[in-house]
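Sample A.
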Amino acid sequence: MLLGEIMFRLHIDIPLVGSEAEASEVSKKIIDFLEKEKMLTLGVEQVNYRLGHDEDRQKSNYLLKNENGHVSNKKCHIYWL
């Protein structure tokens, strides 16, 4: 990226029905569809993602939980380079 260049971000909102465990499993499968070679061909070196909940006003990530079951507010990351 060049100095002063604007960076755009693609935000995709996929409604998932079912329990938290089911939504988590489906989310992981969707992320697995991202192919490293195709993403790098498009110039995408990194993907940040999280599983949220409509009633949760914070930006919680239900894919990241600690040993006490508390969710994180950090995104998950995939770095291809």
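Sample B.
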Amino acid sequence: MTAALLVVIAILVLLACCIVIGIARGWFRSRGSATAFLTAFHDLQPRDKQEAIEAVMEQKAGRRLGTDLSGEGGIAPDAARGDEKEQNQ
């Protein structure tokens, strides 16, 4: 019984070491499967839902852009997009 317990503990320690080394070396990196899933989910939606998803993503990206660029509030989302209407006025 004691020998079996020692073998199980040794296997668990070896497995833990392999996992730590694998994470450190990047063997378990994400390969972008989440992006592929979200793209497929978007494509399967009706057109009005696709437009709603795109609008929400653009709003979130605009908010993030406005606050991330500098401590002074960054640039306005419309200026960051480079809208031709605003540039021509």
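B remarks: The helical segments are 2-25, 33-44, 47-68, 77-81, 84-88. The chain is about 75% helix and 0% strand.
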